[in-house]
Design brief:
By secondary structure, this protein is mainly alpha-helical. The chain is built from three helices and no strands. InterPro entries: Arc_rbn_hlx_hlx (IPR013321), FitA-like_RHH (IPR053853), Ribbon_hlx_hlx (IPR010985).
Length: about 80
């Protein structure tokens, strides 16, 4: 078994951990182990940026947005100006 030391833990985070451990009837050390095991035993599948953007906006109704009509042709960009 490995030993892990966490330095620089914010006092507020430590207090939240203490309360959470007490709520679950565990020591703070046991609570940290439970959090790590729970978090790491269900890895998030790697997805690309496009997939994450799609998932974020998949529930948005397309009818909510009115796109303006294009009345004029696209302009040519002059990079020398």
């Amino acid at each position: 078994m490995a030993t892990l030391t966490i330095r620089g833990l914010d006092d507020e985070v430590r207090e939240q951990l203490r309360v959470r451990a007490a709520e679950h009837g565990r020591s703070m050390e046991a609570e940290v182990r439970a959090i790590l095991v729970d978090t790491l035993s269900h890895p998030v599948p790697a997805r690309g940026l496009g997939s994450r953007i799609h998932a974020r906006f998949a529930a948005v109704d397309e009818g909510e947005f009115e796109l303006p009509t294009r009345d004029e042709p696209p302009r040519v960009v002059d990079f020398d100006a």
